[in-house]
Design brief:
TRAM_dom, seven-stranded mixed β-sheet, alpha+beta, globular
Length: 555
């Protein structure tokens, strides 16, 4: 995975409350708060802090540089969501920014400062005084502990409002676009919500663990041995503790059936199965990955089950294979073997234990073969919406005369959906397996005008571009760190007439849009694009993740 380069932190400070925006008060970054004087340890535990209001003599005499101390308690009112879905709060007297996990807009709560990070602090929520304004009951029993769906207890309408607001504020404060510009209102489009808020994920990765995560109030019930084993999702902040999950509301019903079967029998001592221990580096089972697709001809569901293990011992997995293969939707059971001490889910070797080596999925008229480790958009339903928006932004003439450069192309999903309307698609991707899948997908769909090239776009050389003609359209879909400065400089030199930036991280997206449109003076880089539209898309309901489709034209 690419590493965010040092220049990437240049304007991300507003996202987490750095000094530059500490004295401003846009609603996205700041919340009203009432300062609470630090109390003794016993009083902290009783959650009864003494409150100092802004009208008190104490608050009046506080210096402007005041910021909370570690273990101090504060009463805060959250107004919006920020980085990773954390609630953004602000000490009223000074504008000091405080971030709190699982604090939601409108919620008044008491939090204890856990750590300071220079110009902002993090707090742990201790007690809710008044619940947030869009409170709903979370349907998932694990919602309060699992880190996957932090905002299930926030109404979906409020979730998409918060995401849209987040993008808007980032484009202004990180991207340096003016909210006073009359054209800006036309550039920022309303967020596209997802019609399906549950059972939308076509891939879920569960981990096996030797230590089950338990909430504090249940720690006295901890058991030893197999009874403490877990299969589920890592508890937030813990690499070695796993929240045991019997059912996940984000994945398909068929996937939940498989999960239930595995949960019912994998701890049976007679099977001889053991979870991998990340401390001692012993054990067999590392991950269970479930992928859902659909048959290209019938449209019926197809399910791939992938066991990631520390060694190749198919005889140990056979009892599980026998039971799982009886489910009609299961068409593929794979064993990825990862012998490294790390706990990654990608194996060094792959074995087929049952059925096919891949499953299929259709997207905008193209059928894709999905192998165990290949990338594919996780929400198939909303990917249709996303790719339609990309095609609309491209404004293809439809006469087969245009050349498309598809950067970070993955398995070729975006480029291949456009290929039949253009002269040629050139795709670049760092992962060799993804390039192999892209070429196979092109061949299987009878597409001959697509070329896929393996290469690291964060390390482009001076001769990059020799393998393709000057494109009419560039599509860039980087991972969360965004684009490397070398690539941005190349794109500014290339000067393609149209550029579509697809982003899964609005912070780095705003930064890169700033460079592409306004340049970077200290690097003597001049921008040459004009942002014409920015369309947020909610790909993952109940999570903090946001997708954006940005359309830029050469000035």
């Amino acid at each position: 995975m690419a590493v965010l380069p040092s220049y990437g932190f240049r304007r991300l400070n507003s996202l987490i409350g750095f000094q530059k925006y500490r004295t401003t008060s846009p609603s996205f970054y700041c919340c009203a708060s009432i300062s609470v004087e630090q109390k003794s340890k016993e009083e902290d535990e009783e959650l009864q802090p003494s409150i100092s209001t802004s009208n008190s003599s104490t608050s009046k005499t506080k210096p402007s540089t005041f910021f909370p101390k570690k273990n101090q308690t504060l009463e805060l009112v959250c107004e919006s969501l920020g980085f990773k879905g954390k609630g953004v709060c602000k000490v009223e007297e000074t504008g000091f920014v405080v971030m709190c996990d699982r604090a939601l807009p409108g919620e008044r709560f008491i939090g204890r400062v856990t750590r300071k990070k220079g110009s902002y602090a993090e707090v742990q929520k201790l007690k809710t005084i008044t619940p947030h304004s869009d409170l709903v009951e979370a349907p998932c029993e694990y919602a309060s502990a699992c880190g996957g769906c932090k905002t299930q207890n926030l109404s979906y309408e409020a979730q998409v409002r918060a995401k849209e607001q987040q993008v808007h504020e980032l484009v202004i404060h990180v991207g340096n676009f003016s909210a006073n510009d009359l054209e800006f209102a036309n550039v920022m489009k309303p967020i596209v919500p997802c019609d399906i808020q549950f059972n939308y994920r076509n891939k879920m990765e569960f981990s096996f663990g030797t230590q089950k995560w338990l909430p504090v109030e249940e720690l006295h019930e901890r058991q030893e041995g197999v009874n403490d084993y877990a299969l589920g999702l890592h508890a937030p902040g813990f690499f070695d503790k796993v929240l045991n999950v019997q059912k996940c509301l984000l994945q398909s019903d068929a996937a939940n059936t498989v999960l239930a079967i595995v949960q019912d029998c994998w701890r049976d001592p007679e099977l001889g199965l053991s979870p991998y221990c990340v401390h001692k580096h012993v054990g067999f089972l590392k991950h269970l990955i479930l992928r859902t697709g659909s048959d290209a001809k019938t449209g019926s569901p197809e399910l791939m089950v992938n066991f990631v293990t520390s060694s190749y011992k198919p005889e140990l997995l056979q009892p599980l294979v026998d039971q799982i293969s009886s489910i009609s939707e299961v068409v593929s059971i794979i064993n990825n073997v990862n012998t490294s001490v790390g706990n990654t889910s990608v194996g060094e070797a792959e074995y087929i234990l049952y059925g096919k080596s891949s499953i299929s999925e259709a997207l905008r008229g193209i059928t894709f073969q999905i192998s165990a480790n290949s990338f594919f958009q996780t929400n198939t339903y909303q990917a249709e919406v996303l790719y339609r928006l990309i095609e609309e932004c491209a404004g293809l003439r439809g006469d087969g005369s245009e050349v498309v450069l598809d950067l970070f192309c993955g398995t070729g999903t975006i480029g291949l959906t456009l290929a039949k309307k253009v002269k040629h698609v050139y795709g670049y991707e760092m992962v060799p397996q993804s390039i192999s899948d892209a070429r196979r997908n092109a061949e299987n769909n009878g597409i001959s005008n697509a070329t896929f090239i393996q290469g690291d776009l964060n390390k482009i050389s001076d001769n990059f571009g020799d393998q393709f003609p000057r494109p009419d359209i560039v599509i860039s879909d980087p991972n969360r760190p965004g684009m490397h400065l070398k690539l941005i400089k190349y794109l500014l030199k290339l000067r393609a007439p149209r550029l579509i930036y697809v982003s899964c991280n609005p912070a780095t997206c705003a930064r890169d849009l700033d460079y592409l449109c306004h340049g970077l003076e200290e690097k003597n880089i001049k921008g040459c694009y004009k942002l014409k539209s920015l369309q947020p898309v909610d790909m993952f309901p109940h999570t903090p993740h946001i997708e954006c489709v940005c359309f830029l034209e050469l000035e």
